[in-house]
Amino acid sequence: MKKLILLLLTLNFISTKAQDVIFSQSFLAPETLNSSFTGILNHPKVGSLHKSQFTDYGVKINTHYAYYDTWFDRFNTGIGVAVLNHQEVNSNYNYSQLNINYSLAFKISEDWYFRPSISTGIGIKSFGFQNLLLEDQINISNNSIDSSTDPLMFQNKRTFFDFNSSILFHNEDSWFGITLRHLNKPNISLTNNDNMPLDIFMSIHAKYYFPIFESGYSWLAAQSKFYILSNFMMQGVSSRLDLGMQYIFDDTFSFGIIAGTNPINKSDKRQLFSSINSFVGFKWKSFRFGYSYEFNTSKFINIGGSHEFSIGYDFNLDVRGFFM
Questions:
Q1: Is the dihedral angle over the CA atoms 272, 203, 281, 215 positive or is it negative?
Q2: Of 64, 66, 69, 92, which Cα lies nearest the Cα of 80?
């Protein structure tokens, strides 16, 4: 019975992990949202994030993300690389992906730019199925464990090619972008002779500068900026809308709060609000630091919150501004 439960949980995790990772600090590190941010500062930048989820539940998940990109002014081109590793600690589920990003920039008005980009990469999914014990492996006659003959026997690893595309419109203070991932719908099934296409992930995101402090004449108002944040995401039957705000002081310190919602409620049991995320950011010289904590608001199960840490380095000072 325990093995059957383990198998059901395993299959559930496989289905769950088909959903893309959503970072709480996507507005502190917009590279995680949109590959069109590749080379946007016109000089090299590098950064990484670490996310720890389900801290009060029995399936702790750790996610690592790192990126590096630069800009080639002669070719009007940005090129970068991004690496993702996603691991469920107890079950040994592991998902890794390496992507190469390529972007262009076009000036469409005095203040606005248009940046299209593509991102291609290789993904690898693996799972420790060697720890599972299936019914046909049990040999009662001699009290031994044999190899399984189940036609749906799992394979331990799946490698696939992935293709993504993004666009970005931006000026000095605000941006709006669209990202489509897994356009080729790669097969991520871990069963032999089966096909489980990875659903296309869509994200429509924006960061809008709201001039709430421009009418003030105080020193504090002159150093302050306020932004409205939004990010609508959809993948398969799952959807999510993040809405929030960010305050930046002197282009050095920032904090914000974002509410995660379920705008397309396909079940009476689903709550409108799924999480509350608070984050802070700090810039020191060329370094950028961030921390966020996501509070789970689900009434069905207490899975704890999510901690997320980020660090970034820009190879030129006083450029980032609203991208922080």
A1: negative
A2: 69
Question: Could you please report the per-residue DSSP string of 267-313?
Answer: STT--SEEEEEEEEEEEETTEEEEEEEEEE--SS-----EEEEEEEE
Q: Answer whether 23's CB lies under 8 Å from 29's CB.
A: yes
Q: Are 283 and 324 in contact (CB under 8 A)?
A: yes
Q: Which residues contact 109 (CB under 8 A, 6 or more apart)?
A: none
Question: Cα–Cα distances in Å, from 260 out to 12, 179, 263?
Answer: 23, 19, 9
Q: Which residues of the chain have pLDDT under 70?
A: 1-18, 55-59, 91, 128-155, 192, 216, 265-270, 298-304, 317-324
Residue 267: name the closest of 243, 232, 237, 234 by CA. 237
Q: How many secondary structure helices (H) and strands (E) does the chain include? A: 2, 17
**Domains, the chain:** 2-323 (2.40.160.40)
Any idea of the CA torsion for 29, 30, 36, 39, to the nearest 10 degrees?
-30
| Structure token pair of residue 56 | 């009060």
The predicted model scores a pTM of 0.82
Tens of pLDDT, residues 150-198: 544 556 778 999 999 999 999 999 999 999 999 999 988 877 677 888 8
